[in-house]
Structure formats: C-alpha cells, structure tokens
Amino acid sequence: MKIMVVGSGGREHAITKALARSPQKPVLHAFMSNLNPGMMALCESTTPGKMKDVPAICADALAKKVDLVVIGPEEPLMHGLADELTRRGIPCVGPQKKLAEMEGNKLVLRSIVDKYFPEANPDYRLCRSAAEVASALHELGRVAVKPLGLTSGKGVRVMGTQLPTAADAEAYANQIIENNGEVLLEELLEGEEFSQMVFTDGVRVVPMPLAQDAKFAFEGDTGLMTGGMGSYTMADHRMPFVSAEARQQACQYVEKLIASVEQEYGMRYHGVLYGQFMLTRKGPRFVEVNVRYGDPESINVLSVLKTDAVDVFTGMVCGLPEKIEFERKASVCKYLVPEGYPENPRKDVVVRFDQRVVDQAGVDVIYAGAEPQGDACRATGSRFAAVLAVRDELAAAENAVENAITQLGLSGVYHRRDIATAELIQKRTAHMRKVLEG
Fold it and tell me: What is the pTM of this model?
C-alpha cells in the first residue's frame, strides 16, 4: 500500500512514524513545506512544495499512484485539498473545505454550536468597530481576543496575561479590526483546558486519550501564546482534574458537532477532529476545534496507539476498525524551540543530536521546523523538535525527557522544563478544585 503524508511538522513526523510501525509495511511518501529529516528517513520519496498548492499536491499523489493521502496541517484543508483529491478519486483523511471552515473561521464554529447546542459555547461578540469593541468589553468583562482566521496558535491573547488591562484588550482588538476588519471577543472562561481528539468515519466517533498541552512560551504559563510547547497524556487516558462525567460530556459535544455539521451542510466529516475544551464550573466549553490532529498532542497519542495505524487511517475513509486500542502508558513530549521564539526566533541555529544519547535515554526525537544541514539540522524558525518519552508512569516519562535533554547539551534552543511535572499538575488540579467549589 502506498500512502502520502502532506505536511512537515511534528504532527506529520508522528503520523509517519505510526504508519511506518504497521506490519503491513506501507510505502510512504511525503509532500513537505520543509524537508523534515525524520520523515525523510522513513519515506521512499519526498516532494517539497507549498501547502496551499493543491494542484501540485494532487499531481504528486497521482504520479506516485498512492492509495491514500493523509493531510496533516490545516492550510491545505482550507484550500480544498480534500475536495480535489476526492474529485480525482484519491482517498484522503481530512474534511472538505466547507467543513474545515470550523477552524479556518472561528465564527463558523460559534455559529454552528449556537444553533444546535449553545450550552457548549462561551458568550461572545463579533466586533467590526471600536464602538462595538467598547460595548463588548462592557458586557463581557474579562475576555479572550481572537482573530477570526488561522494564526497557528499565536494570535489569541487573553486579559490577565498578555493583556493586563481592559485598555490593552481594547487596543489589541482594535488593531485586529484595523488589519482584518473584524475581531471575536469571548468571555474569559475560568477553569483548566484539555484536548479531546477523536477519529471519525462520519458515523462512528472514537475518542483518543485526553491530552493537555502548554500553550504559553515560558514556564509558569507566562509569555505569548504559541502553537504548543509540549503536552502529556496519562496511563489511564484521563486527566487528574477531569472527571469521568466531564470527559463524557466533552465527547458528547464532539459527537454533536460532527452530527450538526452534517445536518447543516449535508456532508459527512471524515478524519480527526480536535476539541479544545475549558473545564468550567458549569462543565466543559469549546475553546476551539481543529479539523486535524493537534500539534503537539498528536505526538503523544500516536506514540501509544496500539491498533495498526494503517487500519485506523484507511478506516477514517471507509469505516473505522471495530476496536481501536491505545497502550495504557503515559507520554510526555517537550518542544525544543529556537531562542527568541515565538516573536523573533533565531534562524541560524544548527543542532546535532547524539543518537547514542537518544537511544540510551529511551526517548524519541520528533522533528518539526528543521531541515538537514550535513550531519546536523538547521532550525527554520518555528518549533524545532520534540523530545518524547513513553513510560508506565507520567513522572518517569517526564524525568526521561528532562534527562535526555540535559545529556544532549544542546545550544541555541530552549524548552519549558515545567511541562508534565508533578508541581504543575498539582497546581492545575488545585485550581480546578477551587473553580468547581465556587
């Protein structure tokens, strides 16, 4: 079987690794925006190109005579890649452009949820003028300020952290209106975030283990928002602060969303749907959805996927396997990013991983914003590479990642050392308990 993976980030390297583990021994190809060295080592061929170049991606898939295309990032989905591949008779994992707008335009998600099950939404306002921003701030109080379009996780800013005062929020919202013509202001939900991703063939919906990522650039959840500095999953596939009832409700909301978009557009959703939730006193609420795997959360859940990944990915097109299993193990991944990330990342960083250290530490390196440079890799400016460990217990996985990074002794990059530590999890659990107690 021939499978093409579209994309070149950590998510796509994780997908490629999962497919390469299959006993079916698929022949793998990749269409990449940068030449991910980890994917190059696993693929028979790699083609460089732009993620929005739908004709080029389709032509490459036809030339390679692939049996399946797995679309990793959001950009090609927003440009209709799934529609065009389907039109040409090439099976693909990923929703059609109309359905992908749930991620491409944040107002689309809010509107659908408002229509079919509004209890899953926060309160929000769409603003197109300074007067509307001022009115929304008065009505909502503390807010999250969100550009409507794609921002790779870096456009959202919230009051109390990146926007210390209402005046800061007002100024940032007005700046977005000046640039884009409109902005979304949402009530600032109080609670803890978690990610519930699912596989779906449009009929069945199969949840993956819960994950929690670290969006802020620096330790203690400070600094600007990023695409995600790292994430973890637990051996029981839950989160310490998410009850069984809250998780079930989140899964029901994802199922309702998939059913609602079919009712709204007459199209079935095929692929991965990522629900980002805030667990509040009133239950989970949608923060956002992604129409593909989360990054870095994909690195975690795919590392513990027990069922043959080829069967899972083909199943999202033609019918999911009857049973999809995950190892009862914990996973931790932490991204190494260039100094200056996310605002002004260095692009002259060259990193050489000592494979002996990686092997002895029992960890994996998942490449993202990296390109080969001799026997080393050059950082492209985005997240460079993630160090991943899978162990029976979370603490052991976190220790393994930290020990490996220390032994590697890399320069020019940094990471968040507090991700998945007992201290940070205890802090978040205590915060959630306080929220629930009111």
Answer: 0.95
